[in-house]
Structure formats: structure tokens, C-alpha cells
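FAQ
Q: What does a multi-component entry look like?
A: The components come first, one per line:
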Amino acid sequence: MMVAAPTRITDQSLRQFAGYTMKRAFNAIRADVTAALAPFELRMVTFSALSVIVENPGLRQSQLADALLIERPNIVALVDELVRHGLVEKAKSSTDRRALSLVPTLLGVDSCARATAAVAAHDRRMTAALSSTARTELIEMLKSIERAGEGLQNDGVTTA
Amino acid sequence: MMVAAPTRITDQSLRQFAGYTMKRAFNAIRADVTAALAPFELRMVTFSALSVIVENPGLRQSQLADALLIERPNIVALVDELVRHGLVEKAKSSTDRRALSLVPTLLGVDSCARATAAVAAHDRRMTAALSSTARTELIEMLKSIERAGEGLQNDGVTTA
DNA sequence: TATTGTTATACTCTATAACTATA
DNA sequence: TATAGTTATAGAGTATAACAATA
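Then the predicted structure of the entire assembly, as C-alpha cells:
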């Protein structure tokens, strides 16, 4: 079979979907935020973890996993990376001898503040085309999509 | 060091960022669309590829890679998967003996139509809380973020 | 019994280097 | 010399099973 290639490629059918465009938008965000966090030796996921630890000092690893929707086994290396960089300490829980309490160090608190400022600048760059209210509405719409996903685990079986 | 764990964990600081909430929203979308595509033996990326091939019959693999922002090496196994399922054929280009033209089969066109309907239903489920105009605005905002990313490869060096 | 942290493991997704055959 | 398809490979990111210590 012999066919000539079209000159201009379109993705019109996929563009009707919020999911497709969101994937492309998030790709752009990930690339930019990764660059923004590199000077702090933080990745997206380690920055998120550090932020939650600073905001909730003393939380257990399993609580961090729940908050960030990360499986417990994957938390171990992630927290160890923060410990290795001197940003977080693993303290023994006073109430449960199985558990570890995650506490930010002074360096961790400071790095988190500066990284948060860098990420805020990145986020403003990416949403520069949006008005302040539009940006707020975007975040609210994304939250509503996140919430929509929470009710769909059974996937149609219970919809009858 | 002994610390008691907080009872309620928050991620308030991260919630100010469109990127963080978008990641969580997209996680929900990915889980739901993956389930929606499973009956067709399609993954997110193979569905996107099939859709572009049906919309642009005869395009070359490198054009498909450009359209979907996928590196050329990763296109090979992806297209082979569509060929194996009888949805796409690799035809020889009539103008360039190096190139392959990707053509959908009749089954491919039909499967694409039915999968597109399933994905449309999924997309409506996920955006059920949004009005029709709000949903359109969401997609436009996501496009503007995607566009913002295209200008930022150099990362601040040229901003001076 | 159930839960916390952990190890080992595997699977997907994505990115890079280098080869071949053509242009 | 550049490009199209390809191979091999490596690194993230993420998910599951199973274990020891403790509740």
C-alpha cells in the first residue's frame, strides 16, 4: 500500500477532552517546576513532601503517604532523600513505638520557604495569561475533577 | 526527639498552586480513562495515537511523534501494538523510501469511534460538576498553560 | 488481627545514544 | 550532512507482596 503523508497534522478530536489538554498542560508544568526546583535539589514529589512535613510537623510516614496519595513503600526512599539533604529528621513517636514522626530541620523550614517562593513564581509564569479570578476558578474546577474521581472506583457497576 | 503526630494532615500551602491540584486531578482522570479504555484493549497513549492516525491517515511515524510530543524511539512499540491489534497498518511511503505511512484499518476506524464515545462519557463524568461554558473555559485555560510552557525552554536567561 | 515501616520487585512511562537506510 | 525508523538502555514514577516489630 502506497500513501502520501498529510502536511499538517491535527489532534482536533482529542482536543474536545479536558483530559488530553490537561495532560499536555501538566507536561509543560512539570518541565518548568522541575527546573525551578533543581537549585534546591528538590524534585516535585520531595518538594510536596517537605511542604506537608513543614505544615504538619511530627506527622507519621503513613500520614504523609495518605496526604500525598503515595503508596507507603515509596515514602521510605523519598523521606530518606530529605533526611540525607538535612531537611527532615525521623524522630521516634512518643505514643506509638512502631511509628516515626517526621520533623523539619531549621534548614528544612528555610529551604521550604525559598522553594515555595520559586514554585510560586513558576506557577505565576505558567498561568500568566489568566486573570486572578480565572486562576482561582481553574483551581476550583480542578478540585471538582479530583472530587469526581473519588466516587468512581467501582466504575459503573453500582450505577444501575 | 519525641513528637506526637497531628491528627489532621493539611496540604494548604500546596493548594495555592495550579500545578499541584492539576496533578491530583489528572491522577483521577488517568485512573478513570484507563478503565474506560480497557474494554478496547487501548491505553491512554495508544488511544491518542489511534485517534491522530484516523484523523490524519497516511502520516509518518515522525509526524505522529511530533503531534503527541513523544520521542521517536517510543513510537515504534506503540505503533506495533496498534498493528498487532489489527487497528493500523504500516504502509510504505510513495515519496520517501525511508518513511512509513500509518493507515487505520476498517477495524481501527470503528474501534476509534467507539473508544472515542467511551472517552467522551468518561470526560463528562469527570467534569459533571462544571457547566458547559465552564468546561469550555477550563480547556481554554489549560491550552494557555500549554502555550506558556512553549516559551520557557531557556528558563529566564533571555528574560533580562 | 491490624498497622507501621521496610525490602524486594516489577511494570509503566519517558529520555538518550547510536545504528541502518535512505535523502 | 541530515532525516526516518529502529534497537538497546536507563531513569523516573508508581504499584504489589511479604516481612518484622508493635499495637
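Q: Is there any commentary attached?
A: Sometimes. For this entry: The first strand of chain A starts at residue 2 and ends at 3.
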